Each structure stands twice: as structure tokens, then as C-alpha cells.
Amino acid sequence: MNFAAVDAEDLASCVSCGLCLPHCPTYRITGDDSQSPRGRIGLVAAVRSGDIALDGGVREALESCVQCMGCLPACPSSVRYDRIITPVIDDLAAKSSRKSLVKRLFFAPLTRPRLLRAITVVANVAGRVHLVPKRFPVPPVGSATRRLRLPATATNPRGDVVLFRGCVMDAWYPQVHQATIDVLDRLGYNVKLSDPSLCCGALHAHAGLATRASTLTSRVDEAFPGATLVVNSAGCGAHLARHAENMGEVVDVMEFVSRHLDEATFAPAAQAKDAVVVHDACHLRNIQGTHLAAHRVLGLFYEVRPIPDEGLCCGAGGAYAIEHPKAAELIVERKNNAIQSVIDDKVRYLASGNPGCAGHLHSHRPASWGSVEIVHPIELVARALSTSHPRAGETGRT
Fold first, then answer.
1. From start to end of the chain, where are the E strands?
2. N or C: fewer beta carbons within 10 Å in the chain?
3. Exposed, middle or buried: residue 56 (CB in 10 Å: 0-12, 13-18, 19+)?
4. Residue 11, CB half-sphere, CA atoms under 13 Å: how many?
5. CATH topology for the 8-95 domain
6. Is the distance from CB of 191 to CB of 161 less than 8 angstroms?
7. Rounded CA gap, 251 and 187, in Å?
8. Are strands 228-231 and 190-193 parallel, antiparallel or unpaired?
9. For residue range 164-190, what is the model confidence (pLDDT) as tens digits?
10. Are 302 and 380 in contact (CB under 8 A)?
11. Domain residues of the chain, as ranges?
């Protein structure tokens, strides 16, 4: 293996300045240059040229990357680290047939909604009796299934949008879908739902299962040609935005709401505001560049407090927290300390736009946060607009 799929020009574009180091979570917890973007780029280049062998230490350094892409906006040379590490992770996964098989089996329920919900219910029960390891971020709401309510008649004047239900979001966070539907309806859009068996392949791609990821992404892409796909999972949105080719647009829900606030029939809150700490998911901040949309929208109704750590990753990283639990715990500890620095008696919520981040933060939340509720930003918008309950004349349909 010589990482032939990595572009030599991408490797050469790194000048090893080190400005990426403060933005790399694994470097921050280790201080080891091999655990940084520039260090990994150097290792890939050396393996590619035959100067070093791909031994266990090199492999460990490369596989330990969270793939948060915090180095992308930090790099003054615009090094495309994403185009370097992605084929490397794919090659490493292909080289280990046993690991690939385990990952495929682990992700198999993602395209089987009933199976995923059943596993989630069992996991929640097991979690309550402390049989599930802490690194498995099974949310407490996962066992609650609910029918999504759509307006009985689709007569909104702004047109149609498709809400991408996904796999994990649909099984674990149905209340986020309902909040999304309510807010989009309030903005004047007819909401259509994707089939919950459609998985975008983001988790597969992150794990190096490139072929399976491509197949799943193509299914989503072909299902909605020319459509506006609204996504409330930052990881799914980032993946589809980069890889879907036939859709009209893939847009994060908070970015969509931010764009269309002028079409809304509501006014900003005038009363004293509760405070919300906003966690910027890496997929929104480093890949899509739309993280400030949540700050703008929530600022209409709440006092918004950013986390003072320049968006450093929380350590969730797809299945990273499961494969690298010790590193993930050290990373989230740093994130928790930064969050704690802005929490006081006024803070009622911690908002995150990615299910993996929300679950990871929930499973590692310190007691010092008290009753702070971890929610999706769109849930807070729906609550502020009082759209979380059925309106007169509505009937439930899925």
C-alpha cells in the first residue's frame, strides 16, 4: 500500500508551518506532532515515497485522526487535508478485512429503521442498568417513538422542501424532525419526508467504507433530483452537500431558516431571554461554513453564548468515540471545560446541530452543568414560536 489515491500536489502544498496545531484535537491532548495534520501529511508522503514502512505506529497515527477538519479553515496555504486523509482512511480500512467486516455489521441496522429502533430501545434499557459502556452515546429519548405530524393540507405559498429523515435522527431524535416540520411550515413551506430507510452513508465514509458509502449516497441523490433537501443532522448535511450531484440544494436547517427569516410571521422576543450555549458541530463550522446561522436565529429569542475554544472538536467523530474511547474522553473533557466557563444560572440549554455531538456530550456531561438541557437548535426555535403542538385542523400523517 502506498496511498496512490492521494494527490501528490495536495501533499506538497503543506509547508509545515504548524498553524494547524492549535486546531487539532488529537495534537492538543498529546503534544505529539505525528498526531497533527502536518505530521500525518508527512507520514503519508513518506509512506507514498517508500521512505518509511506502514508499520503499526504509522497506522495508529493516521487512524487516530478524528476527521474534524478543524485544520481546513486554519491553514493559510489552503491545504486540502480532507482530500489527503479520506483516501488514506479508505486504504487503511480496505487493508484490514476483519475491521471492515465488523464495521459493516455495526452499521447494517442504519438502513433498517425497525431494527434500528428495536436496538435503540434495548440499548436504552441496558443503559439504565449500566450495561452499556459510557462511550456508546445512546440518547435517553431513543426509546420514545412518535408519529410525525404534517399539516393536513399542503397549501403553503413558498413551495416544497424535502426533510431528510436519515437513520439515526429518525430513530433517536424524532422530536427534532417534528420541530423542523413545524418551523418550516411556519415559514411557509410544504414539507415532504424522505423514506427513513435512506441512509446518506456519512458514517460509512467516515469509517473508510467508501464503496458502501457511495452506494448509499447515490440512493439519496437519485431519490430527490432537483429538490431542496433540508437536513437537521450536520454530519449528513456535510456529506450530502459534498457528494450529492443531482439535487437542487442540500442545506442545513438552521441555514435555511436564517435565509428565510424575512418570510416568517413572527417577531423577535422582547422579554427577558434565557441563555443558550451553542456548540458548533465540526461539520457545520469546518466543512459547510454555516455554523453562525444557529447563532443568528437563536439570538432572536435567546441570549446566545458561544463556546470560547474556537470551535475545537468535541471528540464524537462518527464512531471515533467507540474506536478510540480514551482519546475521545480527553477531547470531550477539554470541550466540557470550555462549556463550563460560560455556564451560569441563566443558561438553560446547550444546543448542538449534530446527533453524534449531542449524544457524546450527553454521555459525558459533568454534574456541574446541573439541569442544562442538551437540544437541537431547531427545537429551541420551535419552542419559541410555540409550534411544538398540533394546531387546530391538523391531522397526523407520516
1. 160-164, 190-193, 228-231, 249-252, 275-279, 303-306, 347-352, 373-375
2. C
3. exposed
4. 21
5. Fumarate Reductase Iron-sulfur Protein; Chain B, domain 2 (1.10.1060)
6. yes
7. 15
8. unpaired
9. 999 999 988 999 999 999 999 989 899
10. yes
11. 8-95, 275-384
Angstrom distances, CA of residue 9 to CA of 70, 327, 394: 21, 31, 57
- pTM (two decimals): 0.90
Residue 77 has a CB neighbour count (10 Å cut-off) of 12
DSSP string, 150-174: --SS---TT-EEEEE-TTHHHHH-H
- Which residue type, as a one-letter code, is found at position 258? S
Q: Which residues of 248-276 are buried (b: 16+ CB within 10 A; e: fewer)?
A: eebbbbbbbbbeeeeeeebeeeeeebebb
Helix, strand, or coil (residue 366): coil
Identify any residues that bridge with 303 across adjacent strands, giving them in sequence order.
275
pLDDT digit string, tens, across residues 285-305: 999 999 999 999 999 999 999
Give the burial string for 10-25 (b: 16+ CB within 10 Å, else e). bbebbeeeeebbebbb
> At 263, is the pLDDT very low, low, confident or very high (cuts 50, 70, 90)?
low
CA pair distance 217, 204, nearest whole angstrom: 10
First and final C-alpha spacing in the chain: 48
Is 367 in contact with 138 (CB distance < 8 Å)? no
